Amino acid sequence: MVLTEGNQSTGATFTLLGFSEYPDLQVPLFMVFLAIYMVTAVGNLGMIVIIRINPKLHTPMFFFLSHLSFVDFCYSTIVTPKLLENLVVGDRTISFTGCIMQFFLACIFAIAEIFMLAVMAYDHFVAVCNPLLYTVFMSLKLCASLVAGPYAWGIVASLTLTYFLLALSFCGSTIINNFVCEHSVIVSVSCSDPYISQVLCFVIAIFNELSSLVIILTTYTFIFTTVIKMPSDGGCRKTFSTCASHLTAITIFHGTVLFLYCVPHSKTSWLIIKVGSVFYTVVIPMLNPLIYSLRDKDVKETVRKLMSHTIQS
Question: How many distinct structural domains can be found in the chain?
């Protein structure tokens, strides 16, 4: 880490303002976010357990879905507890190390989710366009590689961005007008020129968004072309039903990301950015297991059996 004379970056203290400008809403927001986090934890961990115990769900699609649930749970757990703490505790400070670690870990899982959704789009493409060769194409080795890829790239990209953040100087107490240590808010309170770090973050973000969307749009173009050519209406409905959950998750996730990128950086946009960040970091990890569980009969059947067994015991 590059340190200028008199700089005390490692000893710097950040203050996460969060939603402190609304003191009357601190307790209601705490209750809402706590409820959301509990649903997120139960939903995503429950999805992983359900997929593991039901042999009908031991397919590549649900293998990828279990990893999406794992990513969502980890991402929410990295962000939400600190948000809850800041809503009920007067001291909203976070250490330099804690802030950097939160960004580093959140970045890994955010990037992993972007490409996990792209991997699931490819899985749907193979299942719809090459159903007879599906088990051959989607081998255990390929599935493991497709899952390892998002994690590996997430770690590489996060390490790179974190390294350049550590090269910046942070002097004394700095105020962050957000509830999470995101890249943009960290560089905004730096004492040194963050140009290189900002450009690098922009390039990585554009690469992630464009490459994942190209994969998703290309695969679904082939899927819809294949579906239109299907002779039976039943086959079309079944295929659309299978893809609907994934398309819903993609629309919500990428729609929120693109919305945040389009928000102008002005003083009046901070509240919009924070609300968008809440949706991106807290709400979406809760929605994914609900979206998939409500549309899949095998998942719903497993949930009913588990609830029936719990009640009887």
Answer: 1
Between the CA of residue 129 and those of 3, 45, 214, 292, what are the distances in Å? 55, 31, 18, 22
183: domain CATH number? 1.20.1070.10
41 vs 39: CA distance, rounded Å: 6
Is 18 domain-assigned?
yes
> Is the pTM above the cut of 0.85?
yes
Q: Are 115 and 250 in contact (CB under 8 A)?
A: no
Domain that holds residue 135: 9-312
Q: Largest alpha-carbon pair distance within the chain?
A: 74
Q: What is the DSSP string of 157-177?
A: HHHHHHHHHHTS---SEEEES
DSSP state of 313: -
Burial (CB < 10 A; 0-12, 13-18, 19+), residue 181, is buried
Confirm whether 145 is domain-assigned. Answer: yes
Secondary structure element (H or E) that encloses residue 13, with its range: strand 13-16
In a domain, 4, yes or no: no
Q: Domain for residue 139, yes or no?
A: yes
- Mind listing the pLDDT tens digit for each residue in 65-120? 999 999 999 999 999 999 999 999 878 889 989 999 999 999 999 999 999 999 99
